[in-house]
Design a protein that fits this description.
4 copies of one chain form a homotetramer. Chain A has 20 helices and 9 strands. By secondary structure, chain A is of the alpha+beta class. Chain A has 3 domains: 158 residues, Butyryl-CoA Dehydrogenase, subunit A, domain 3 (Up-down Bundle), CATH 1.20.140; 134 residues, Aminopeptidase (3-Layer(aba) Sandwich), CATH 3.40.630.180; 131 residues, Malonyl-CoA decarboxylase, catalytic domain (Aminopeptidase, 3-Layer(aba) Sandwich). In chain A, the strands form 3 sheets. A 5-stranded mixed sheet of chain A has the order 1-2-3-4-5, with helices on both faces. A two-stranded antiparallel sheet of chain A has the order 6-7. A two-stranded antiparallel ribbon of chain A has the order 8-9. In chain A, helix 2 packs antiparallel against helix 3 and helix 5 packs antiparallel against helix 6. Chain A is globular and about 75 Å long. Chains in contact: A-B, A-D, B-C, C-D. At the C-D interface, helix 5, helix 6, helix 9, helix 13 and helix 19 of C face helix 3, helix 5, helix 6, helix 9 and helix 13 of D.
Chain lengths: 452, 452, 452, 452
């Protein structure tokens, strides 16, 4: 999800977590260079983890946790992989103790014996991860460690049990109650802005000038969630254009030569980009909370705002379309089907007014069908649709020729979608979506559908 | 642990958590007054908790968590007690699912089946508490909820299983990695200073003038831990006098007419008071981390500081002494034993120089014995001793006539103790204490002991 | 203007300016102990001032300015007086140069020759004061120096020329453009709150509990102006009660047992106290700007506020009344006149309902006359009236038995006044007041007047 | 002094002062659109200024000052020029009153009559400028107004009298005592960093990557002075490299591929760039104070720093050299002289090792002569030399081939100079420089000089 195309500073890698770690390393070395840990790094690491876990008191926990992190960071990719495997095989629950707890429970089911099963079945990794967090910068180090782990997951599926532990812990630590929302603007520090630039995953930020155009003008907003233990590290952010109407295409939003309006004259907030920042926090969901919080903040600041819509990509459309049998395209001859498919594969079609019109005739109804009827386990195929509809938004409009970037043509034949958030309907829509698999959509969306 | 003797503002109750809650209440009412929750508060609360737990998505989590807290806060003591009992009986693990998980594990022990046992044995209270934290101010509300729970624990010991869940969660959330140390001084906000005054548990702060004398002068320091989600709420704090020698009595430290010195001329930091602030965080230990962090900060700021000692109370001494058989007092006649005991029960003895001397002859050796040889499970009887020695401090000196307040005479016959923290020895002392039950003490401590 | 009756911390003198100076002193000593300045302090001071003024570059300005301040602060009262006299006699303009400039101007009046007169007629004190401000803490030191000067002014009227220079400088430095408004509440630092307590000049703050009651509740506000160079030192502050009606007496405002309302339900902001804080800034006016800024802030925060009134003392009324010839009291016999006057001198009259009524009959018309017709150079006699009417307020109401404190009875027979600020009328009222000497008053004010 | 070569955002003009003004404009319009000011802008402006100056009270000062600024900003260049001329001709002192004051003084010279001359000779512009500062953002507007004025000065030298008034006021307002030093680093806001990039006048900052390399690494520092009334607007800043030896050329300092060191290992601070930011503050000197303050800060942070040197350009060298008669070049034949001069005019010489050596033979002694003996009114010809030597630095070393940028070759034949600041010698050097016109220089500097 992390874009790396930023010209200005592209070669400089993300500093802050690394910086934290190198500072740690430095301090760590002076703290704990005991003879005990003079072996090779892998052995040391295991020894350190064992010691950290077996520590009776807290006396040396901070220093030891720091040292584990330092040594871990010094490892190469392969060594890290081995370390995760060792965590998997060695730091599960103690089965003897668990079996004893099960026996006691089967003998006498009580709060206490139940509780013992829970305690004894907890993998020792949980406690290890909690103790690693004693180190200064520990939270950042653990997030970075999980990002490493995720890379090994594909080739070593058994590590998913370790990932499970990280995820369990992070769900608790990155609870909404601990997140802080901050507005990102031209007064934000360069350190944070750099992250925003790197992490924008939807419409890449070309340079600082482009960035400035998105956060400084009165009719633009950007908000991010932060966690107090991860200073300067946004977790997720959303970019918003304040306009006088629902925007149907992305180019005018990002144009440098666009007209500016005074925020107080805006009626509509267009959420045109939302990006996760931390690969290590994959699966911990912030987006829904962020959108709702931003809605609240915007309503408070600008009471004249009436409409809250997104301008969203449709990442799954072309994949679905390409897999669709020709006879379902709504095209009468096989020849035309082939022309359509080959035409679509050449992005130049959108430069030719005639082709554009032909395409629209065919694609519009298919897009409506894609959103309204194509489901998997009852939910829409499209991941972005699932996200917004699951949050309680409704499907407002499918926009033709809305994003003509190469990537968008390839993903979605250039269509984009407005989802609408109506504060008073959010709960109801969400309920319908969750319990009855209903997609709430404006009438116009289905109107293009041929009778089925 | 919370003193309430502060003159200036004693009638005003602690505002901040209450304030948060009343604001919540107000906002909550407008959010979720659905017909569904129109029953009596107790029923509503259970219904709300059920709904909160069964929520598929996150759409209404924040509002619902808020509502649970609001309704909970509106309950009376007895109703709260019933609510906790209901949590105990209804929100444990689902035993059917657990039994199935156990069966599957016994059939085939694997990471996955192990993990399922852990998941299915987790009481549903865990998830409930995590979801309650979605509400703004949720963390404060949960800490306050546990303080309520602790009050019911004595009369309802079965609630300890619920307390267990709170404690498990708080151990993770109030991990050292999330705590922030702040210096408390005359630039600190009145809101925080008021808490410091209320929570001082060792040497009560009489008024703002007394408070100022402890935090403003150059030769005084005060540090506290804060958690980012509990603004204005110190978790624990320590008060320090910077001096040119190890202080042997408390009165000169607190005297308003004492001489001031420049902090840069100090050689010794005397930790003379450490107080926990949050009853709802009982059992979550911060003290050891705080002392070590403060040591680091002081060494960084004032490189000339060489000695780090405490001036600590001895809360268990008189209790032990009162239970000691007469023949172990080291007094030759029964009559004298009685005189000694009756003399001790009248605090006036310390006004009479002759009596003082007699007392000292008898008590000093007993105090040395109390610290050096009286143990329970291998550790010292005295809780303050266990705390500091367990942190890696050594026993430096037992001070005669060190605190002549009524309370101190009753608890400890007026003795106080200096524990010494020597940065380079902390690990070693801690190790000796934990693994070999050794108390590291200065020679002089044992010298007064009669041969045994 | 500075009250010193605060119980809690009354013996501790105002620290911050002194602290700044003592820190300065310490650093200063190490900087500039040249042999040149080894004489007695008075001589040194003059020598240092001469050197500071004759400095060609800026190289040693900071250190030298610091040293001047340090030595100045070490002087006793009498020596300070002599120093001011020396400033007066020695640091005026250079008359030879001025005479030459005048001659050149008379020879040829031009921008340049005019400018030279201005430059050569500037007392060298101006430059001296500007250079003293180079020192860290210099602004605070100069404000404190002027406070000293004002004490010598009465016995040495010739020093008014020196005071003139301070005032000229401070008018420029404490320009509205440099002032920062801050809300004072329970999150404000103890250091600032202590100042607020000390400086409250209208209704003394008894203790921290009283203070808290004025700044923490939702229906109370307090705002102060600060200058960036005087950290922690409010310049002026105003206390406000948010109510549902215009308050006619002070006791209910300050009562500890009053009912609280939600700020958002308030319709009226009552400015019940405004106090200057810095004796050294006497004559530099901030009040008018503060009131207007606070009006703006309140309107922004609480759009439902409609009325902005003061509840103000009448410091000049009794003085005027005591000087009024008997025949103008509106009392028919000489005997009754005497009874009235002697009754008034005994504050007990306000405990006796009958006397209260008699008094009201007599005093109300006199109070109306005092405000509406008694003038000096066309402006009202009462200084508080001059302040608010000059700011563009109107006279709303004279309140009988509004403040029964001893002081108020003595100053104003217990009456207080509401002045009203109507934002859209402020300019017009101000204009009428300034250009036509008109006092804008509500009809009811004059109604009690007997026909004249 | 303001570079405009920044790629990233070059087309966007400096926002903050403009932004302030446009916000002002907006608010201003709603405040004061009285019929009185309905004429053309120039007339309005004069009327407004007259009204602002004649205002008796402060009631409408803020709004009126705001309006003056708004109208002023709406004027074109030519109109602004006329406005300044009008200020010059109309807002001088009142000559009748001045003449009366002079007559009174000549009749009776006293503190009072002297003071009256000073008051009456003060141009009314002073008071106008002070009152303009009442407006929010007034200080920024006045600084911007003076920048406009400076542009008209050349063609209208009579405006220097107006400039004089600005300068007098700014000297007082931007006194060292009001300036705040801040470290600029990667946590600084983009708004400030953008200014740093725009204002770097010595070694242009190419892009954000270049900027980052100068402020983020541990071995780089940047400090700026700010004024509290000009938020986000640095006044002057200095860039520093921390190294292990005195750097003799600029390229290695700015290289992206240089080696980094840990700041704590550095022995030497190289001040390699110092830039003024505000054209409107021309002539108000901050540089000397900044360098000394930074010296203090660095010594405090990094006690191992021993050497404080600059790496400075020599902007006047080639101009002097070009004007030097051939016979003084130290070259034996006319032909060689011509070769030398023509060689020098082609920047390629420095690519040819042989030429470089020849050049060095000739230029080194001339450079030494330029610094040691070429004076104007007793002070060095070179403006950068005057600045640093006047601050108390000494001339440490002239570096051959130190800056091979086109501009540097043209200005200084590529030489750069190290000036050294030795804290304990600063006063003495400054004294020698000011009073005896002595340039303190290391011996090696003069060694290359042929005997004279």
């Amino acid at each position: 999800m992390v874009s790396s195309k930023f010209n200005g500073i592209s070669n400089l890698s993300n500093p802050s977590i690394k910086d934290i770690l190198s500072t740690l390393a430095e301090r760590g070395r002076s703290l704990l260079d005991l003879d005990r840990y003079s072996g090779d790094p892998e052995k040391n690491l295991r020894l350190l983890c064992d010691d950290l876990l077996s520590m009776a008191g807290e006396a040396s926990g901070v220093a030891m946790a720091q040292q584990v992190i330092v040594v871990y960071q010094s490892l190469g990719d392969e060594q890290k992989g081995k370390f995760f495997q060792w965590m998997q095989s060695e730091y599960g629950p103690d089965e003897d103790r668990l079996n004893a707890a099960i026996a006691a429970y089967e003998d006498n089911a009580s709060d206490q014996t139940l509780n013992n099963i829970n305690r004894e079945s907890e993998p020792r990794r949980h406690e290890l991860l909690r103790r690693l967090n004693l180190a200064p910068g520990g939270t950042a180090a653990l997030v970075s460690m999980r990002a490493d782990l995720l890379k090994h997951l594909k080739s070593h599926p058994q590590l998913s049990i370790v990932d499970n532990d990280f995820q369990h812990l992070f769900s608790s630590w990155f609870n909404r109650g601990f997140l802080v929302i901050k507005r990102i603007d031209w007064h934000t520090s360069a350190a944070v802005l750099e992250k925003i630039t790197q992490y924008e995953a939807v419409h890449a930020i070309r340079d600082w000038r482009d960035l400035r155009g998105r956060i400084e003008p009165s009719d633009r907003r950007c908000y991010a969630f932060f966690h107090p233990a991860l200073e300067d590290e946004p977790l997720i952010f959303v970019e918003i254009a304040l306009t006088r109407e629902t925007t149907r295409a992305i180019a005018p939003v990002l144009s440098e030569s666009r007209d500016y309006i005074d925020a107080r004259d805006a009626t509509t907030a267009v959420f045109y980009s939302i990006s996760n920042c931390q690969p290590g926090l994959k699966g911990i969901s912030f987006g829904s909370f962020l959108i709702k919080q931003v809605l609240e903040n915007l309503k408070g600041d600008l009471p004249d705002l009436k409409n809250f819509v997104t301008l969203s990509p449709v990442p799954g459309f072309m994949k679905w379309l390409n897999a669709l049998p020709d006879q379902e395209l709504g095209i009468d001859t096989q020849e035309k089907c082939e022309m359509f498919r080959s035409g679509l594969s050449n992005p130049d079609w959108c430069q030719d007014a005639e082709k554009v019109e032909d395409m629209e005739q065919i694609i519009r109804p298919l897009a409506a069908r894609y959103f309204l009827y194509e489901k998997k386990k009852g939910k829409p195929l499209d991941p972005v649709a699932r996200f917004h509809l699951g949050n309680g938004a409704s499907l407002e409009r499918i926009n033709w020729l809305a994003d003509m970037s190469e990537n968008a043509l390839k993903q979605s034949a250039g269509i984009m979608v407005n989802y609408r958030y109506i504060p008073k309907d959010i709960e109801k829509n969400h309920e319908l979506y969750v319990t009855r698999d209903e997609v709430v959509a404006a009438n116009r969306v289905g109107r293009v559908l041929k009778k089925r």
